[in-house]
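ESCALATION

Customer reports they have been waiting on this structure for their group meeting. Please prioritize. Original submission:
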Amino acid sequence: MLSIIIPTLNEEKYLPLLLDSIKKQNFFNCEIIVADGGSKDKTVEVAEKYECKVIEGGLLPRGRNNGAKLAKGDTLLFLDADIVLPPNFLNNAVNDFNKRNLGIAGFLIMPLNGKRIDKFVHLFFNKYSALIQKFSPHVNGAILVKKDVHQAIGGFDEKIVFLEDYPYAKAARKLTKHGLIKETFFTSMRRYDKDGRLNVYIKYFLAELHILFLGPIRSNMFNYKFNHYKDT
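Update from on-call: job pushed to the front of the queue and completed.
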């Protein structure tokens, strides 16, 4: 069984888009767990409408870890709440994951209704991720991992405040085979729209350098906020 785990906080706008895209997949042996961090809108109501299991969450690392503890599947798929999966994504991804005997995998990422510059930057990021994965595996927005691997590394480090998925993938790769699955999902550009594209590009570039040369980011030096898009 595949357990899909989605951390949320005030996601009444985007969560239905993701859940609709999951329901339209030709993959049925799965459960959906929504780890909610205290939403003040209709996020929980939406999740229950789609028959998801709803549990207490928090910031992204804690929400993912709490979801994994409840998961019944032997394979976990962590998804951000503001993404959309194309048709056949789950079936193709799981088949490739199992065929290549992977223990953890990331995916290609493209903008959902973004500008031309967004598409260019994401294409560059995909190429960069493919080149660098042998010594710095990248997973972002969607992470497919064996449950026993997740448990063996102790889950996500809840003390990391930004880009916790990179150290997670690096730790997992020490125990298992990592790969980049060439299936594309689409992510919203709301962070770019609200914070400004140049600001976001610089922030992620500097964070990348920090992780490569200094290690995980355990202080909020980059002023990262988990879902501050309520008015977007």
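Sent to customer with the following note: The first strand starts at residue 2 and ends at 8.
Escalation resolved.
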